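Quick look at the format.
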Amino acid sequence: MRIALIGYGKMGKAIEAIGTEDGHEVVVLKIDLDNANELAYENLKRCDVAIEFTTPDNAVNNIIQCFDAGVPVVCGTTGWLAKLEEVKQICKQKNGTFLTTSNFSIGVNIFFEINNYAATLMSPHKEYDVHIEETHHTQKKDSPSGTAITLAELILEKASTKNKWVNTAAGNDYDLEIISKRIDPAAGIHKVTYTSSVDDIEIIHTTHNRQGFAKGALLAAEFIKDKKGIYTMKDVLGF
């Protein structure tokens, strides 16, 4: 694949390294702060697919530029999802190709499925309370993490006792608390705990490095390269 890397930070460099090992032409287009003007129609048209890892303020504009150039785009930026439905509508209008997720790691996406199944099993058992804890490095820009929000939304679909998630200690029985910690050099730890007076049940995912995210992003790019429409990692992984 001829890949446009939109965002050349730690994730972009990890994608480049793994993509190059796999024989992809990642170097077709690399966009960073110092060459943002090169994110242009004629440059994007040289690429088979774009992988976007930038900031919440820039993500939407970057995605739309990919739609305009007819380039499938995989987006790993989080913190902008208030505009997700708007972006999906633009994708449909322009007959584009789009995939976004809160986490590209294959392990995390399996963790999402486990969390969903656990929430289904626990739903009838009102004696258990549930909360989420996530830990990341201090440079992470959004809080809570997109991964924690995905976990929370899956739980809220099943748990009749919870109305919404809050990014603080819950002051009542109806809020699902997400406790966010920022500790270096943690790459990402997510823990869902069901607790009662007699026992606790915990499911935990611990990230060791960025390679899992990079491999998942490349897998997603390979999946959407020749497709049209809107996809998720469930489609990529066949869940």
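Next, a different chain entirely:
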Amino acid sequence: MELLKIFRSARHIYFGHFGKPAGTTPVEELSAADLAPGGGIPGDRFKRQVTFFAEETWLRLRRELAPHGNAGPEVFRRNLLVRGADLNALVGQEFELQGLRFRGLEYCKPCFWMDQAFAPGTLDALNAWRAGGLRAAVLTAGRLRAAPVDVRASA
């Protein structure tokens, strides 16, 4: 598994907003993040875990739903954009990324705002593909570093 991007956001913009407008707290991209057991990315709204999202899912959505769009992977509001992992297979499993150990906790269900955040049809596609991401617990301390690549260029 390769780590491409690290994101954090101080507040939820969708959770607890059902039937109301989404919030406006931005997503911040980080080049690195120091993690500790039982915690998330410092300053992120998920204080006790991290969330993973697959680059392959983002690229497939771009091809199938938004070939002329420019929405980046940050709109999915997951912490870690990775390449080369079957995230669903990691639920209930321990795994390693850059020397840090994680335990896959559960599948991340996508929210209904995905059609607005990315493109119409995104929510249905993510549900059909079961590709909303992975929630994971941090088991060991260390620093994660994002790959020095521009994923938008590969889209």
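The two ends are 19 Å apart (CA to CA).

See the schema section for token definitions.
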